[in-house]
Amino acid sequence: YGQQYANAWRVAASCSGPHHQFFWDIERLIFITENGTELRPGGDCKIIQSGSVSQRTATWDPGSSYTPGYNASNAWDQGSSIWGGRSNGSYLYLGLNCHHAVNVTIVQVLQLHPHAAKNILVQASVNGSWVTVVSQSADYSAGFVQINIDRSPLVVSTVEAICARACKNRGYCCNDPNVGSNQMISCAQACMMRARGLKSARCPSICHRSGDSGCSLMVDEYSYSFCSRCTDLTNSSLCHYGVNNSSACEAGCAMTPPLLVSPEPSQSQETAPHVEAISIAVSVPLLIISILVAALVGYKLVACKKASLARSAIQGSSLFTPRHSQADFGIDEHQKTMDPSWAAITVRQLNELRDKSIEALGSSYLTATMHDINRAVLQPLCDEFQKPYAHIVNEGELLHVGTFVSHCWSENFNQFVESINKAFQDWPVKPNLWICATALVQSTDPELVLVQVCTGDEPSRTPFTRALSKADKLLIVRNAAIDLYERIWCCWEFFYAHQLGMIHRPGAVLIVGPNTASSKPVDVVNAQSSNPEDKRRILEHICRTASVEEINSKLTQIKLFDGRA
């Protein structure tokens, strides 16, 4: 095969021999070309397949087994629908036939047990005949399979192109990972470190460098240089002078590109694809999220049942996580269920929620916000158990708020979780977290939501405020999408924390997440709210305390506060 281009590519499973099968369920199929882009159907690329339970082909007739909804196009959609592959021929196969020749370097398959292939063939159409380029055994219990075409230099350049594009779309420059500047690690360099197996928990710890940190760094046997001049500088504030600060590195650490195969892989590197990466696409949000699906040890489409939730609650107990507080004494379980401050979850349970969300959303998890997590995971569970998620996973041992988390639902959910993990990564004892999405009953019934949030004309009596008043700390989680200080509820939480004296109490306020908000002063009058009535009530309340100008001044002080100062 060498470096020959091919017009058609497919993944195949033999219908004969030791690994023969006649059924193949694929949720996501991705062909990545040498320039780091995904080859997708549309334009001059058409889907080719052996057949499915929903589609008839030359090699398959579903007959009486016909079932709608399992078309081949599902493998390129972002939902959880699948291709229900079937064949009466020599192979089960799914792929693309294009009018132009392309060079595919990486193939990623998300397949479902029990109809998963134990051996996957990557085949290319060469001179009118199908040639097997790679044959790779697949641990079908893991769900995700990444196949690197065996031409290491080209695979590396493909991943470099993926990292460069992702970082450029985030506004960063110095996107050649072989070039760094200002003795700082660039976004593309950090992304390549992740591709070479650097764990997400360790990656941010190497980002904090200064002007005397040195011109090179060895990470997992690869050397990176940081004292060159970048050729892609722009007028953007993120890269006008090259790599300005650690934010570029932190952005790269948050990415999960396809894993590269090391020339001499260690045992941990060999197993990395089963615990870390999955599919890549052209868009940056999809890049970040679909790859994360491979973090699942086993991919399931069913919702969690009561037994598994009980196990999660037990597993959530940790030597490093406080499960009681002094407020525990003298309060029975019923009283706790009525007090919103007893609706906290552990940091571990937040990460378990992320795992459930990956299961439920599949590759679309990459672009998921809290709204999506709510619809896919929280609402169904709350409807089933008729209680908040925090009470479901901690039934019989409710947790009291330690840290109140202020954030925006429109942020990227995975970035939100990573920011919280980073905030407490060095804490031997993690605090219990009060997060509104997990502390309140989430429902499709707007009346139920309204009853919980609205308490007459007094916002100080809402669950948010009552929980915040009993919290030890306030964690402000910034994000790259929304300015928190333009949301009325966030402004209220910051204002109330100021009233409680938390802003001036050492260590009481923590700030994490990317600082991408503008430096313009806060204008609470123009803050947004999904419910205009909420905004009216909040403005009326805070204006009883001080003038709008004084409120804006206080909130601007909080906004411009730099947690590293």
Protein described:
It is a single chain. The protein is an alpha+beta fold and 565 residues long. It is 29% helix and 17% strand. The protein has helices spanning 152-169, 187-195, 247-253, 267-271, 284-290, 306-316, 333-338, 347-361, 370-385, 389-393, 413-423, 436-439, 446-453, 463-469, 488-499, 532-542, 548-559; strands at residues 6-14, 23-33, 38-39, 45-49, 83-86, 91-102, 104-111, 119-126, 129-137, 144-148, 216-219, 222-225, 403-406, 433-434, 473-477, 509-512. The strands form four sheets. It has a five-stranded antiparallel beta sheet, with no helix packed on it. Strands 2, 3, 5, 7 and 10 form a five-stranded antiparallel beta sheet that branches. The longest helix is centred in the first third of the chain and has 18 residues, at 152-169. The protein is globular, with a radius of gyration of 26 Å. The model is unreliable at 262-330 (pLDDT under 50).
